[in-house]
């Protein structure tokens, strides 16, 4: 079937316009499209394993404090917790252990500064009072300070009820004193044992 002359001309004109527009678009695209950027080199994955300690503590002086909200809490609980820590250190193979007694962190650093070969194992039991007037451990901070330099060989914080991954495998769960019938004294002695467990499993103690 033949188209009328007017319609045929309109058809040719439209086809010509579309052809020119397509050619111009292709040429324009070739000029403006940048070359794809080179793929960046893959970055190595960080080492997931914890590094081995460069030094180990063979001789320790154990001391610490009890912090109750904004007031120092005085009792014989600290002495019992220090003795518990010393007992478990000796059971773990550390034979040279000495009692340092009550000391704040700055006092522990000063003690370490004056030592020649003994490390200072310092911990702080941060306690709170619940709505019934009972005291509980909110968290326990610890640090092993190097003699002379006072550099922290290792340090950390243990919070009751939380799981702590040990560097040599395993999970350490600190009991939550608020959810048990354990007294503050028993909770402190348990926390002292947990600090020793972390140090032993982390390889920070020489046997």
Describe what you observe in this structure.
With 207 residues, this protein is α/β, with parallel strands linked by helices. The chain has a domain at 59-202: Double Stranded RNA Binding Domain, CATH 3.30.160. It is 34% helix and 26% strand. The chain has 4 helices and 8 strands. It has helices at residues 5-32, 77-91, 105-113, 184-202, and strands at 59-68, 71-72, 96-102, 119-129, 135-145, 152-158, 163-165, 171-173. Strands 1, 2, 3, 4, 5 and 6 form a 6-stranded mixed beta sheet that branches. Strands 7-8 form a two-stranded antiparallel ribbon. The longest helix is centred in the first third of the chain and has 28 residues, at 5-32. It starts with a helix and ends in a 5-residue tail after the last helix. Residues 23-50, 165-175 and 177-181 have low confidence and may be disordered.
Mean pLDDT: 76
Contiguous uncertain segments of 5+ residues: 23-50, 165-175, 177-181
Q: Tell me the overall shape.
A: globular
Strand content: 25-35%
DSSP helix fraction? 25-40%
What distance lies between the first and last C-alpha atoms, to the nearest angstrom?
104 Å
The CATH class label of the domain at 59-202 is Alpha Beta
Cα gyration radius (Å): 35 Å
Structural class: alpha/beta
CATH topology of the domain at 59-202: the name is Double Stranded RNA Binding Domain
Compressed to H and E, one letter per element, the order equals: HEEHEHEEEEEH
Based on DSSP secondary structure assignment, what is the total number of beta strands?
Answer: 8
Tally of helical segments: 4
CATH A-level architecture of the domain at 59-202:
2-Layer Sandwich
Quaternary structure: single chain
Question: What characterizes the major β-sheet?
Answer: 6 strands, mixed
